[in-house]
Write a structure and sequence with these properties.
Largest sheet: 6 strands, antiparallel, barrel
Shape: elongated
CATH architecture of the largest domain: Beta Barrel
Order of helices and strands: HEEEEEEHHH
Number of strands: 6
Strand content: 25-35%
Helix content: 25-40%
Number of domains: 2
Radius of gyration: 20 Å
CATH topology of the largest domain: Thrombin, subunit H
Strand order of the largest sheet: 1-2-3-6-5-4
CATH class of the largest domain: Mainly Beta
Structural class: alpha+beta
C-alpha cells in the first residue's frame, strides 16, 4: 500500500470525533480508556498509560453496552479497534449523538443537553421527549424557587 496515502483516505467509514469514557475488557482485566473517535466499523481509544492489548478485546460502555472488537494497531497510549462483524453499527450515528448529549448532561449543562435533544427531535423517541420535557419543567421550577428565595419571597 502506498504510504503517501493518508489513513483517513483509506478508511471505509468517516470517523466522528467524540470523548467518551469506556473500558477495555481483556480476559479478566479491565483497562480504563477514552474513545477519541468512532465510526460504524470501529473506534480509536486512548488509555492513561501504554497498555499491551491482546488481539481480541471487548469495549465496554456506560449502560452495559459491550462490543467485541479486534485490535488493529496500537502506538503508545492510543489504539485502533475494529468492531466484530455482528457488532458493527453498535455505535450508530444516533447512538454516538446520544452519548455526546449524555456527556453534556453529565457535565451539568442541562440547557445545552435539552437544546441538542430538541435539535435531534429527541431521536423520534417518545420516552426521551417526555423525560426531556419533565427535566425542563423541573429546571424552570427550580430556577423560579431560587429566584423567589433570593428575593426573600419563599
Amino acid at each position: 500500500m502506498d504510504s503517501s496515502v493518508g489513513t483517513a483516505e483509506r478508511r471505509r467509514a468517516k470517523r466522528q470525533g467524540m470523548l467518551k469514557r469506556a473500558q477495555i475488557a481483556a480476559g479478566q482485566t479491565l483497562f480504563d480508556c477514552c474513545i477519541l473517535d468512532s465510526s460504524e466499523h470501529g473506534v480509536r481509544i486512548e488509555t492513561p498509560m501504554p497498555v499491551r492489548l491482546p488481539d481480541n478485546v471487548v469495549l465496554r460502555l456506560q449502560g452495559e453496552l459491550a462490543i467485541a472488537a479486534r485490535r488493529c494497531w496500537s502506538r503508545g497510549t492510543e489504539a485502533g479497534l475494529e468492531f466484530a462483524a455482528e457488532d458493527r453499527g453498535a455505535l450508530s450515528d444516533a447512538a454516538t449523538r446520544a452519548w455526546a448529549i449524555h456527556a453534556v448532561l453529565a457535565d451539568g449543562h442541562v440547557d445545552v443537553a435539552l437544546r441538542k435533544l430538541r435539535d435531534t427531535r429527541f431521536f423520534d423517541d417518545e420516552a426521551l421527549r417526555e423525560a426531556a420535557e419533565a427535566a425542563e419543567v423541573a429546571r424552570m421550577r427550580l430556577a423560579g424557587a431560587l429566584r423567589a428565595f433570593a428575593l426573600g419571597r419563599s
